[in-house]
Amino acid sequence: MNLSLFLFLIGILGFILNRKNIILMIIAIEIMLLAVTLLVLISSFSFDDGIGQTFSIFIISIAGAESVIGLSILVAFYRSTPFQVIIDSLVDYYLFSNIEKK
């Protein structure tokens, strides 16, 4: 039970400290959801109840769907920004300038 509390606090701390990086925020949310899943599983095994195990599978599937939706929104936002052309040209310049120097 202490491990799940520790993981949940790490997730909250990661969410608070990484407000500008959306990928790290999604990872922090995943850590929090997995901590809750671990707590549900520990409680399920200690009370010898099967509902907690099925509920933990439900939590894991919701966490996976949340990650997919978050990352797809991030990709859609990246594709719609006008700075993508500038970033791509800088990447191309960096790649081709290193090839020409060799």
Automatic annotation (TrEMBL):
Its EC number is 7.1.1.2. This is NADH-ubiquinone oxidoreductase chain 4L. It is found in: Mitochondrion membrane. HAMAP family: NDH1_NuoK. It is a multi-pass membrane protein. It comes from Sparassis crispa. The lineage of its organism: Eukaryota, Fungi, Dikarya, Basidiomycota, Agaricomycotina. It comes from the Eukaryota. It catalyses: a ubiquinone + NADH + 5 H(+)(in) = a ubiquinol + NAD(+) + 4 H(+)(out). The gene is nad4L. It is an enzyme of class 7 (translocase). Belongs to the complex I subunit 4L family.
